[in-house]
Design brief:
By secondary structure, the protein is α+β, with helices and mostly antiparallel strands. It contains 10 helices and 12 strands. The chain has 2 domains: 177 residues, no CATH class; 146 residues, Protein Transport Mog1p, Chain A, CATH 3.40.1000. Helix content is 44%, strand content 20%. α7 runs antiparallel to α8.
């Protein structure tokens, strides 16, 4: 019986229960985790706090801002699948005319992404940011074209840096809501090259603020600024110089020279200075002029110089006028050299103007007038 039972059951197969479609899908999902294809994973810069970003914007005079902006637009293009040509946005922070259109388009893309990812940002806040940023950009552009107080320029750079940090906060808020993305880089601190920019750039900006704004030049105690049409007469009654323009003031010896100047004047919004040097008869007018021209052309290679000589009134002495004009990265440069002989000495007036191109014509006229009204007494 036992053998019979064994043979009869060995031929019988137990049917497996059939699964319907729903049960089949549930069974598969219990064994497989949903994954985003590797090729579809978007890699973004880790959200970094505004405090860290501020020093990069500020310490690089806004140069970092252009590169930062390109990176953020590239991320927007990846997330939105819209063809935002990221490299063209490099120019947006500095080109005021295109900012209204660029900022508006950026805002539309951001708004759609924020809507899709439950990240709220008030529309009014964007327009306040956009208008403020455009005004700041226009101001900094004017500073590059016209002469503006360096103190105001530093304040403008400070606000510029804050403005793009505010935009960065908006980008960070959106990033923290995203799903299916990977972040790279530090959320706080800097990479090695960023530390270099901050550690070198920030002290440099602060030095500009300290020397150009707070204490532009060391004045002479008890000496007030000169008014337009004033005449400066040397203490020993050796020479006179007529003042043209406001804000000229006498500063301590060594401010612009090596300390050997008899007189040092600063003016034209700190863009110009005049120095008076006194030489003995061991040299000549030609020696003085050649030395100055060579020194000027070694400093500003593009400089072209023109010389003219005239007789002093009722004397046989000659007064020499040299004008040197050149071009530098940030604007035109003007030097003037005036030399005459009086008694046992030669007296030299050296003028220097470095300003923006739109301020140059007005200032150069006054510099040339002063150079032409340096006379012996």
């Amino acid at each position: 019986m036992a053998h019979s039972t064994s043979s009869s059951t060995s031929g019988i197969s137990v049917p497996e229960p059939e699964l319907n479609d729903t049960e089949h899908l549930v069974s598969q999902s219990s064994h497989e985790e949903p994954q985003v294809p590797i090729d579809d994973v978007i890699i973004l810069r880790s959200p970094r706090s505004a405090g860290w970003e501020f020093f990069l914007h500020f310490s690089t005079f806004g140069i970092y801002t252009a590169f930062w902006f390109v990176k953020r637009i590239k991320e927007l293009s990846l997330l939105s699948k819209q063809p935002l040509i990221s490299w063209t946005w490099f120019f947006v922070p500095n080109l005021v005319p295109i900012q209204p259109f660029a900022f508006r388009r950026m805002n539309r893309v951001l708004q759609q992404l924020e809507k899709d990812n439950d990240s709220y940002y008030p529309v009014s806040s964007f327009w306040i940011w956009a208008l403020s940023t455009m005004v700041l950009s226009a101001y900094l552009w004017l500073d590059s074209e016209y002469t503006v107080s360096s103190g105001y320029w530093v304040v403008g750079l400070l606000l510029w840096s804050v403005a793009y940090c505010v935009l960065g906060v908006r980008f960070n808020a959106l990033k923290r809501k995203l799903v299916g993305v990977e972040f790279k880089g530090k959320q706080s601190g800097y990479a090695f090259w960023e530390w270099l920019l901050v550690l070198l750039g920030f002290p440099f900006v602060m030095l500009i603020l300290f020397y150009s704004s707070i204490f532009p030049y060391t004045p002479i105690d008890g000496v007030e600024s000169f008014a337009d049409q004033d005449v400066y007469i040397s203490p020993d009654n050796a020479y006179r110089l007529k003042i043209h323009g406001d804000s000229w003031r006498e500063v301590k010896s060594g401010t612009f020279s090596d300390g050997s100047a008899d007189l040092e004047l600063a003016g034209m919004g700190n863009d110009a200075n005049f120095l008076v040097f006194i030489s003995g008869k061991s040299t000549t007018i030609n020696d003085i002029v050649n030395f100055r021209v060579n020194d000027i052309q070694s400093t500003t290679p593009s400089t072209k110089c023109h010389e003219k000589r005239v007789l002093l009134n009722s004397t046989a002495n000659v007064i020499t006028h040299v004008t040197c004009k050149g071009q530098e990265i940030f604007g035109p440069r003007l030097y003037t050299i005036t030399v005459f002989e009086s008694g046992e000495h030669y007296y030299e007036l050296l003028g220097d103007l470095s300003t923006s191109k739109h301020s140059y014509v007005k200032y150069a006229e006054k510099i040339n007038k002063m150079a032409g009204e340096f006379y012996p007494l």
